Amino acid sequence: MAEPVQLQFRAPTRGMPPTHLADLTDDEVKAAVKEAGLPGFRANQIARQYYGRLEGDPLAMTDLPENLRATVKDALFPTLMEPLRHVSCDDGQTRKTLWKLHDATLLESVLMRYPDRATLCISSQAGCGMACPFCATGQGGLDRNLSTAEIVEQVRAAAKSMRDGEVEGGEGRLSNIVFMGMGEPLANYKRVIAAIKRITSPSPEGFGISQRNITVSTVGLAPAIRRLADEGMHMRLAVSLHCPDDELRDTLVPVNNRWDIDEVLDAAAYYAEKSGRRVSIEYALIKEVNDHPWRADLLGKRLRKKLGNQVHVNLIPLNPTPGSEWDASPKHVQDEFVRRVTEQGVACTVRDTRGQEIAAACGQLAAEER
């Protein structure tokens, strides 16, 4: 006989939020429903409402008897986050949301609609502890990890907005998720993996978004990259490298002092081998800091040696934060950088930048609110 599921609900204290439906596995949801005094079949009903119909408020779950809805809300649906504001640009097809969490912590997500897809950039932490000096989030420091449900709720809200036609372009479907918002996803490893499983599982256990349409970005926590590879999943890995030499990277990405470029690229190659997915290298091009021709040559050579044809460089024109000493490289420098990396046999393209006029670089909106 199977052991009964033991539930450990979190109290709503300063810090991690109270336990929500999206924090729980299927078996844990069933146990929570029974603990609330409801028949077991309600668990599937509630999960279908949340993951299938994208309904986050039990009071609006019309297939639940009205006298049970408050009970379900108390048991499984504490208020985790509320939108403080939405700001839009790109003719309404890019929308950034500033969220206020239960403990007044601020959080950001960005929904971007393209002709062939809709991508949500989500946060995995409130703030970030990686301290990269050119990043608004990194300069603000780490408030705390997000719970699994706080990550999942960003996705549910965006999927509902797309379905209901709240983003310019009419009704649509959320298709892609990138963990490139606030925080270092692999520093909140267990909750991020749990959230990905909710996001990618079919209803009623999840939203049914393909693992192949999920990108996990990291500054290079080499052991965690290897651990991710061993999960047997198929997300795309993006490594925020930003320079090809350890001397500069020690300054731009301080975690490099712990895991240097060779260790990070070895781990990335292991991920590519295990997952069968090409690795993306993120490179924010900063004027007269990391945009030199010799650095482009070195980047191409190191990537070709470590990853062969299993790598692609995303060159990102820097979105400067107010008061920053950093600036974006001129276009002719950017074009020469692309040419030189490509000449080494490594695919290199410039990322389509969105949302600069709405402070869409991670952490900018939260910093303004503070």
From TrEMBL:
S-adenosyl-L-methionine binds at residues 183-184, 217, 240-242, 319. Its cofactor is [4Fe-4S] cluster. [4Fe-4S] cluster binds at residues 128, 132, 135. Binds 1 [4Fe-4S] cluster. The cluster is coordinated with 3 cysteines and an exchangeable S-adenosyl-L-methionine. One of its GO terms (cellular component) is cytoplasm. Pfam families: Radical_SAM. The keyword Ribosomal protein does not apply. It is found in: Cytoplasm. Residues 114-357 form the Radical SAM core domain. GO terms for biological process: rRNA base methylation; tRNA methylation. Its main location: cytoplasm. It catalyses: adenosine(2503) in 23S rRNA + 2 reduced [2Fe-2S]-[ferredoxin] + 2 S-adenosyl-L-methionine = 2-methyladenosine(2503) in 23S rRNA + 5'-deoxyadenosine + L-methionine + 2 oxidized [2Fe-2S]-[ferredoxin] + S-adenosyl-L-homocysteine; adenosine(37) in tRNA + 2 reduced [2Fe-2S]-[ferredoxin] + 2 S-adenosyl-L-methionine = 2-methyladenosine(37) in tRNA + 5'-deoxyadenosine + L-methionine + 2 oxidized [2Fe-2S]-[ferredoxin] + S-adenosyl-L-homocysteine. The active site is at residues 108, 362. HAMAP family: RNA_methyltr_RlmN. Reaction proceeds by a ping-pong mechanism involving intermediate methylation of a conserved cysteine residue. Specifically methylates position 2 of adenine 2503 in 23S rRNA and position 2 of adenine 37 in tRNAs. This is Probable dual-specificity RNA methyltransferase RlmN.
